[in-house]
Task: inverse folding
């Protein structure tokens, strides 16, 4: 996908990538379920930011929602502690499953995540998560087996939407292990509400609250055609001691703003939804700035990923800041304070999600101190992918197809690094590594290579303990397939830093 493809080739490549991502999801579900059945599923107990964990999960899912024209929103009650102690990874896993399902089974309308506190002691807090959608709904008969393994609402679900039927079963086990409960309320064609609770520890020490002095009592007008978004933003601004009002369209917003000026209660800030029927956000911004009565009002635009505004557009329409939906509390707060303080012309992106839509890894000249690399893999496609990654990083490699050929190659030439597939016919990667180490330790002169040669495992085995198995066989490191180019580059740089480059 980072090459110069024609439209049909790009479509085919994107299909392959999408299929691969779906397959990885299925495999991960099966692995997790197997670990649950074997009693091997592990949990961490870490201090983490609950709000950030939730909102970063929605960031990942937001593009899928926007691509379907679905509104994705999150409402967090003011009494939810931002800092808690538990397993953020498992919490994200549950949320990804429930919110992802809601988006998958909703063709129009909205998906809303609501978070509230349902119980509290001196040391723990019980948090409830509600995921509500306006999707196809689930019949009462189908709900009975919904959290069982390999179960979906009906046979047509798998054909139309895919999946393993394991996601909700895994979520139920995870929730149970986190001392919570999970359930569903739904009617066919009337949407669904999936909910779960989890008990989390309170962190030690004081939790800092957000300083709201600069925006206290600020009058704000929220303009959005979606009632849920208006409600969520209204509650959030109230929690920050602001004075919010709401409008459902541009014409109503203009009237409210003009009336507020006449009564001496002008709005200092307006939050404008970009996509609204009739007068959209940009049209409303232009109308506000063209009216001398209300033109001094600060403006923040709320947009989706496909409607990004650059600095020139922000200046053209008089917009002080732009925020990508679904809005994170921290970014919303910063946008408002930026606008009030006059820091104009900024678009705030989700972390790591700025619009660099395609990442290119151009081939670079081969370094002078380039490593001599031997790539061992019996699969031709895997060889081509690995060779392509190496070329992009400025390296070249010789290829062999099994452990016997690795030994033969070492007897002919010297290599600094072997990228060793573990599963090969004849002699696999473990056996080849053990044979190499035995000959190096014997020191009988039969090996002409520069000993000890660095051996890095490249394996599709993702089970816990696989890295330890590779190291026990005499390997120096481990790369899980599909190999990420950044991880491969780190391995190569480590080899070079150890002074292993060929003279």
Result:
């Amino acid at each position: 996908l980072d090459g110069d493809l024609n439209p049909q080739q790009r479509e085919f490549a994107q299909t392959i990538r999408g299929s691969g991502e779906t397959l990885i999801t299925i495999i991960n579900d099966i692995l997790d379920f197997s670990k649950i059945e074997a009693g091997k599923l592990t949990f961490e107990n870490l201090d983490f930011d609950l709000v950030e964990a939730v909102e970063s999960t929605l960031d990942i899912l937001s593009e899928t929602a926007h691509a379907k024209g679905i509104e994705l929103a999150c409402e967090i009650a003011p009494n939810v502690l931002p800092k808690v102690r538990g397993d953020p990874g498992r919490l994200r896993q549950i949320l990804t499953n429930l919110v992802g399902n809601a988006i998958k089974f909703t063709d129009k309308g909205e998906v809303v995540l609501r978070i509230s506190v349902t119980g509290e002691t001196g040391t723990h807090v019980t948090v409830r998560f509600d995921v509500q959608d306006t999707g196809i709904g689930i019949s009462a008969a189908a709900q009975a087996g919904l959290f069982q393994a390999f179960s979906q609402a009906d046979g047509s679900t798998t054909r139309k939407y895919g999946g393993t039927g394991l996601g909700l079963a895994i979520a139920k086990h995870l929730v149970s292990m986190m001392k919570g409960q999970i359930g569903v309320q739904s009617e066919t064609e009337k949407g669904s509400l999936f909910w779960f609770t989890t008990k989390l520890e309170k962190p030690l020490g004081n939790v800092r609250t957000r300083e709201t002095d600069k925006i206290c009592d600020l009058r704000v007008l929220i303009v959005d055609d979606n009632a849920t978004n208006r409600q969520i933003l209204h509650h959030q601004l109230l929690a920050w001691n602001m004075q919010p009002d709401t409008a459902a369209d541009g014409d109503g917003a203009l009237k409210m703003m003009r009336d507020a000026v006449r009564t001496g209660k002008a709005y200092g800030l307006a939050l404008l939804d970009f996509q609204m029927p009739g007068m959209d956000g940009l049209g409303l911004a232009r109308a506000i700035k063209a009216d001398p009565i209300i033109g001094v009002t600060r403006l923040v635009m709320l947009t989706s990923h496909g409607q990004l505004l650059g600095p020139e557009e922000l200046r053209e329409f008089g917009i002080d800041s732009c925020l990508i939906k679904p809005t994170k509390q921290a970014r919303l707060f910063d946008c408002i304070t930026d606008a009030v303080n006059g820091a104009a012309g900024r678009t705030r992106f989700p972390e790591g999600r700025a619009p660099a839509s395609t990442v290119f890894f151009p081939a670079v000249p081969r370094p002078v101190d380039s490593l001599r690399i031997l790539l061992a893999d019996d699969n031709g496609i895997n060889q081509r992918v690995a060779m392509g990654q190496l070329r992009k990083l400025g390296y070249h490699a010789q290829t062999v197809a099994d452990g016997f050929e690795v030994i033969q190659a070492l007897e002919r030439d010297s290599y600094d690094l072997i990228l060793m597939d573990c599963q090969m016919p004849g002699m696999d990667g473990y056996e080849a590594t053990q044979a190499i180490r035995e000959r190096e330790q014997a020191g009988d002169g039969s090996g002409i290579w520069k000993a000890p040669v660095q051996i890095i495992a490249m394996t599709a085995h993702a089970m816990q303990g696989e890295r330890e198995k590779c190291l026990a066989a005499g390997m120096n490191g481990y790369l899980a397939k599909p190999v990420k180019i950044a991880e491969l580059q780190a391995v190569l740089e480590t080899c070079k830093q150890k002074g292993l480059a060929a003279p």
